[in-house]
Design brief:
about 550 residues, mainly alpha, Helix Hairpins, 2 domains, two-stranded antiparallel sheet
Amino acid sequence: MKEDPMTNANRHSLWTTMKLRRKFSTVSVAFTLVLAGLIVFNVMVLRNQSQYSQITDMAGRQRMLSQKFGKEVLLVAGGVAVDHLATLRVMRDSLAALMEGGEIIVNLDTGAKVDLPPAPNAEIRAKLAEQAVALRLYEQAATAFLASTSGDGRRADKMKDLLAAQSQVSDAAEGAVKMLSYHAWSSIQSMIWLQVAIGAIIGFLAMVISRLIGRQIAEPLEACSEAARKVAEGDLRIEALDVHSSDEIGLLQSSFNEMVASQRDVASQARSACDSLIAAAAAILSSAQEQAAGTKQQAAAVQEITTTVEEISLSGKQVAERSRQVAGTAEAVASSGTTGLQAVRDASVGMEAIREQTETVAENIITLSERTQAVGEIIATVNEIAEQSNLVALNAAIEAADAREQGRRFSVVAGEIKNLADQAKEATAQVRGILEQTQKGINTSVMLTEEALKRVEAGRERTTQSEHVIRQMSDNIQESVHAFQQIVGATNQQQIGLEQVTQALHEIRQASQQTALTTAQLEKASLDLSHLGQNLARTLEKYRL
């Protein structure tokens, strides 16, 4: 795991933890101090040079003072009042200052003084000591010369001794001046070489410091620039920059590392999001296509169901019309049953005239037989209608089950129709049984017509029974009429329900068409989204993680 740049920087020297402004300020202060030191050093050199010049001047002045002292001695010897001893004191004091250091008069007219250092080395000190010995000899020669008179024969010798002593003092002073000048020149040369060495050292240090500062600034910036170029080319696999300081360059490198890491995370997340987007777009597109196919199938199924319901509605109309016809026939049968009942009553009342009206009764019985056959046909028709109604009710129940919630009312109507059809079948079965019994009675009546007279009483009873049976038959027929009327009403309700179902199917068909349109729009949007994801993926392929 890579160390934190700031923690790594804290382990280095104080220099690496300093900011650039402080570094430059420190370098500026250091060079200023060095420059100030050079200036102080130069001032000291100049002061030393000035002192060496004063010492050389004072040493050279000794020769001038010796000559002045010689002239003053001659003047005093000639009778001129001159303070030659003052000149001698100046020479002594100057020589003592040159040897041991101290104050010395630099201007004989104003009396200005300066402090001189001691003799710089033993050779110069020895030369000055030699000068001091020569000065004492010079003083002794001057004293001896002044002590002589003009008539003294040795005065000329003493004059020669004085001049020789003066020459020695001058020579000693000249030697001291040369030695002091050479020492001054040597010191100046040493100072010059020292300054050159110090300047070279300072220049070298300046170059080293500049190189170090340049490396600490240029190399990290160059590495950062190279890394930025790679990032610009899309290479995010670069290693993190090594941070060796906590200054602005170190902060720039740390910020650059954080930026690259953040950009790498963003690119990775963007690539993952792009892949998810492409997968989601493909899934949406697949779902949209499946939904479009399902919507088309649903629309086709709704169309088929609508056609089937319309056919069922047409069949319902036919059933309703047929039911109305059957109801009319049943009413006619009921009316005939009432007439038959009245005839039986008349037969019962006129039983006494049966004998006279046997033929008439036979004809009536034949007519009744024919009507009974007609009723049988009607009952067969009613039974067939009941069976068809039962079949229609079964088909309606199947369609209602397919229609689910919308077919609940239709299912109720179909059940009612089925119940009515079952009741009609039971009633027709009963009527058929009754008609069969009636047919047997009629046949028996035809066969026993000849014996009708003998069996009037029996005929009267059977007439009574026939009246009762016909009454029941009339009642049953009336019930059948009511049942067919209910069937007609139920068929009408069924027709209304079928119309509602048809309307609902049309609305479902419109909704399916709208859904198909919306699905097509969704499919187009999914394609656009997929293309967008692919474009984004191609853009992100520029970055190499």
